[in-house]
Amino acid sequence: MTLRNLIIGMMMAAPALQAATPVYLDESKPLEDRVEDALSRMTLEEKVAIIHAQSKFSAPGVPRLGIPELWTTDGPMGVRPEVLWDEWEQAEWTNDSCTAFPSLTCLAATWNPEMAKLYGKSIGEEARFRNKSVLLGPGVNIYRTPLCGRNFEYMGEDPYLASRMVVPYVNGVQDNGVSVCVKHFALNNNEINRHTSNPIVDDRTLYEIYLPAFKAAATEGNAWSFMGGYNLFRGQHASYNPILMNDILKGEWGWDGAVISDWGAVHDTKSAVEGGLDMEFGSWTDGLAGGASNAYDNYWLAKPYLKGIQDGTYSEEQLNDKVRRVLRLTMRTAMDRNRPWGSMVSDEHKAACRQIGGEGIVLLQNKNNLLPVNTDKVKKIAVIGENAIKMMTVGGGSSSLKAKYEITPLDGLKARLGDKAEIVYARGYVGDPTGEYNGVVTGQNLEDPRSPEELAAEAEKVAREADIVLFFGGLNKSGHQDCEDTDRLGLELPYGQDALIERIVAANPNTAFINISGTGVAMPWASKVPAIMQAWYLGNETGNAIADVISGDVNPSGKLPYTYYATLDQCGAHKLGAYPGTPGVDVLGNEVMDMPYNEGIYVGYRFIDKNKLKPTFPFGHGLSYTTFEYGKPTVSKSVMTPDETVTVSVPVTNTGSRSGQEVVQLYIRDLKSSVDRPVKELKGFEKVDLAPGQTKVVHFEIGKDALSFFDADRHEWVAEPGKFEAVIGASSADVRGSVPFTLK
Ligand code: GLC
C-alpha cells in the first residue's frame, strides 16, 4: 500500500470516523441536542449520581461517558484555597494563593457597571485557572438590616442598583466558561437563625425588593446556576421552595440553569425532589456522617431518591429535568473545550483590585478639605487603629481567602507618603489579634499586652504631636461583625472606638476617620470629626487603594449602596419589630423562627423618606475632591403613552479644579397611585467623568417599567396613568432638580 493510497484510504474513512463522534460530545451541535443525547445514554444510577456531591465541593459527572466532574468553589470575592476531599480545612497546596478582590458592597459603591464587568472577568479568570466550573457567588441578598453578618458579600439595599451591578459581574465570570452561582436565593437577609429563619413576606415586597437582582442575574445575565438559601420562605426551605424555584425562577422567568443547595441546606428527599432542587451539596458537611463508608451515597438525593424512583414514589421524568440542568451546566463549563485558560494573581488582577477599590471608596465628609493629605504642609502623620495593620482577607466565613499578599493601610501609606512626611503609628486599642480560618493563617502577631488606657494614651499623644490623624476604625471578620453565620449585636463600633475617636479628635481636630467595614455602623461623633471615609474590605491592594485616595492620586467617586443609619430604629426591620422573629413551625411541623417583614417595601431610603428621618449618611451619598453643579432637568416630552419612553436629560458640570467622576442618580416619584408607594425609587444612574469646567448632559430613558409597582392581586407589574416626577439627585437626600411628566 503506497503512502498515497494510505492517505486516500484514510480520507475516505474520515466521514465514517467523523460520524462516530457522539452528539453529546460534538460542540458543533445545539446544546439541547447534546443534553438529550447524553441523557439518553445514562443509566438510572448515573442520573442519580450526577445530581449530588461526591466530595465537599464536587459532583461526579459520568466517567463512563467522558462527562467530567463538576467542581465548585467559593467565593464571591476571590477563589477559596483548595480543601481536602471531605473537609472545610484547606489542603495546604502551595499554588492556590489568590487575588482577594474588594468586598461586593465596595463594588456596589462604585455604581459603575464597567467595574462589575472587570471584577467578574478577573475573578472568573482565577476560577478558570484553578479549573473550577462553578464560582459560588455573587451574593445579591438585600441589605434589609445593618446587622446582617454577610452584608459585605452583597450589593446593598436597593434592588435597582444591585440589578445593574450583578449582570456585568455574571457576564464577566461566565465569559471564562465558569458558571456563577447567584446566592442565596432568596431572602437570606440575616445570619441569625439562618437555618430556621422563616421570612413572612407579601408578594409585592418580594417582587419589588427581594427578587429583582436575582431576576436580572437569571434573565439578563443568563446565570447558569443559582444557590438556594438555608432559610425558609412561607414554611418551606428556600433551596427547594416550590414558589421560588418552580413557580418563579423556572416558571415565570423561564430559567434553564441548575439550582444548587447551600451546603447542608437539604433536610428531606421528597421536598427536595418536588421543590425544584437540582444538586445537593454539603449535607452533613464531612461526607462521612450517617455511619456509612461514604455518606454521599446516603444524601437525600442519592440512595433514598434512587429507591424512591425504583419503587415508583418519584417519576424518572422529574429526575430527568434535574439531570438535563446539570448536563447543561457541565457542557457550558467543564465540557467547553474553547474556554480561555484564565490567570492567577496577574498584574491585570492586581490593577483591577486596586482600581475597583479606589472607585468604591466613599468620601462621606471632608470639612475644611482636610483630605487629600497635602505633604507640602503636612509633615507628620499619625496613623491610629488596629484596622490600619490587621489583614482582613482571612476570616468572615466561606468568603475567607488565602491571598497571595495583602497590603495593609499602614503599609500603603508608608509606601506612598513615607518619603514626604513622617508617619507615626499607634494601635489605639486591641480588638481581635487572631488571624486564622480553615487552616489559613495571616502570620501576623497582633498580640499586645498593654492595657486599654496605655494604648489609648499612646494614641492620644501621637495624635497631639501630628499635623493630621488618620484613624482606621471599623469592624473585622470576627464573629458578630462582618462574618457569616452571625449577625452583629448592635450598630455600635466595637472595642471602645467611639470613646477613643472622641479623645483623638479632642487632641487633634485635624482627624479623619477611615471606616474599614462591609456594612454600616453608628457614628455618634460624626459632627466632631472633619473627615470621614468608608473604605470597605479592599483585598490584596487595600493599602494602595486607600493611599491612592488619601494622597489625592485618585479622586474618590464612590456612593453609598446603603443607608448609614444613626440608630437601629431608623431601619424598618427594627422599628417595626420584625427582627429576629418569633417561634413558628414549617410545613413539616419543625420549629422555625417566623420573621414577618412588617416594613414591607420600605427598606433603606424608602423607609427614611417615608418617615422623614435623617440618617448619619443617606443612600447614594458620596463626596469628591472636586465639586459638581447640576443644571435643570428636562424631558423629551411631557406626556408619554405606556408603549413610549421619555428621555430625562440633565447637564452636569465639574465646577472644581480637578477632574472627577460623579454618579448622577434618577429617582421616579409617582404623585398619585392607588397603592401606597415610596416617596421615590431609584430607576437610573450614570457615572460621568468630568474634567475641570467640563459639562456633560446625562440622559435617562424612562419606560413604563420604571413607573410600575407590583400588583399582588393581579400578580403583574402595573403602571397607573397620571403624573410622575423624574427626580435627579447626587444622593437620595441631595435632590438637585426634578421635572414632571404624565403617563397617559
Ligand atoms: C456556606 C455559605 C455559602 C457557601 C457554601 C459553601 O454555608 O452559606 O455561601 O458558598 O456554604 O461554602
Report on the architecture of this protein:
- The chain is α/β, with parallel strands linked by helices.
- Helices cover 27% and strands 19% of the residues.
- It is built from 19 helices and 31 strands.
- The strands form nine sheets. It has a six-stranded mixed sheet with strand order 11-18-17-16-12-13, with helices on both faces. Strands 23-31-30-25-26 form a five-stranded mixed sheet, with no helix packed on it.
- Helix 14 (409-417) links the parallel strand 12 (380-384) and strand 13.
- The model has no long low-confidence stretch (mean pLDDT 96).
- The site of alpha-D-glucopyranose has 6 residues, from loops.
Question: In which order are the strands of the major sheet placed?
Answer: 11-18-17-16-12-13
- The total count of strands amounts to 31
Strand content: 15-25%
What is the global morphology? globular
Low-confidence stretches: none
Q: Key features?
A:
744 residues; alpha/beta; 19 helices; binds alpha-D-glucopyranose
